[in-house]
Amino acid sequence: MLNEKLLEVMTYEGVVSIVTWSSNGVHVANTWNSYLVPVDDRILIPAAGMIKTQKNIEENNDVKVTLGAREVMGYRSLGTGFSIEGTAKFLKSGSEFDQMKEKFPFLNRVLEITVKSAKQTL
Asked: How far apart are CA 44 and CA 72, in angstroms?
């Protein structure tokens, strides 16, 4: 699910947008490519805030994520991006939480996204 091009994009710095929605409306949270940790068909993201994101996920765990990097070759020229759809939950304990906490000491939760689709957009 996480192809080589997407994994390459994650190695460069760029902005990541995480879109959630519930009866309270749509919310967009941002983070950085360098905070994304791919694990099989999942992406782990350190969370220190993301309060509205968590509230939305508790009601509706569907998420959309976009990210990109200018340094990675796209379809026609340098620069590419991805649109990811999946489901999400927050981890507050466990071995993956501990590993992420070691890498990102500021986190108090880990956002885990299970990827259903990842489409290159550029």
From this structure: 22
